[in-house]
Amino acid sequence: MHSKRAYILRHHHAADHANARLHAAKLGAFFRPSQLGEAGLTPDQLPSLIRRRVVEQVARGLYRILDAKPTENYFLTMACARVPNSIVCLLSALRVHGIGSQAPAHVWLGIPHKARPPRLRRLQLRIVRLSGPAWTYGVKDVEFEGVPARITGPARTVADCFRLERLVGPEIAIEALRDALGKRLVTIAELSRVEEVLPSRRLRAHLEMRSI
């Protein structure tokens, strides 16, 4: 009985010590094995850290400190890590680019048209099917807290709000257009180029009115 109690205490002490090292190294919520040296730990210790509920593996080569405080892009980062073949789009992309006033409760992700929809616990997703030019045009490579991701650029995002207006609503599309132009995050010319590749009669009408 005494030896079991001693084992549990050692287990908790080791977990607390490793957790304190990870936080002291300021790795952020997510980290890769190559960064463990900054905390005085080694990749060989990862299985033990997982067993002790200090960290969890969220994707291949990517781990999360379980008690890390959520950051602004925490859930977005989790979604991109768990659904690597995806594109951050629509309301989530608007928020990242600082366009409009949306604070979506869901993470909006585009996935290939025939891909199986992801089912993730603890994450609320809105999935959009994309194919052809919509999968590649106006999409940028970025990182969220060290996690590689793809996101529609500002002009593409605004255009998508008109193109997929049935998903977000006309008010959000118009607000996005006004705000992006007002903040000079996009130009009429950039939006026109997107519209040529990914047509939207509603967006074209608004651009023509502003060009008069």
Query: Count the helices. How many?
Result: 9
Percent strand: 15-25%
The level of helicity is 40-55%
Structural class: alpha+beta
Average pLDDT reading:
89
Number of domain units: 2
Number of separate strands: 8
Instruction: Based on Cα principal axes, name the global outline.
Output: elongated
Parts with pLDDT < 50 across at least 5 consecutive residues? none
Radius of gyration: 22 Å
Specify the biggest β-sheet.
3 strands, antiparallel
How far apart the termini lie comes to: 85 Å
Q: Helix and strand string, N-terminal first? A: HEHEEHEHEEEEHHHHH
| Main sheet strand line-up | 1-3-2
Question: Can you describe this structure?
Answer:
By secondary structure, the chain is an alpha+beta fold. It has 2 domains: 2-65; 74-211, no CATH class. The chain is 44% helix and 17% strand. It is built from 9 helices and 8 strands. A 3-stranded antiparallel beta sheet has the order 1-3-2. The protein has a 3-stranded mixed beta sheet with strand order 4-5-6. Strands 7-8 form a two-stranded antiparallel ribbon. A hairpin with a 2-residue loop joins β2 (55-59) and β3 (62-65). It is elongated.
Write the layout of secondary structure elements.
Blueprint: H1 2-24, E1 30-31, H2 46-51, E2 55-59, E3 62-65, H3 74-82, E4 87-88, H4 90-97, E5 107-112, E6 125-130, E7 139-144, E8 147-152, H5 154-163, H6 165-168, H7 170-182, H8 188-197, H9 201-211
Parallel strand pairs: 5-6
Antiparallel strand pairs: 1-3, 2-3, 4-5, 7-8
Helix pairs in contact: 4-5, 5-7, 5-8, 8-9
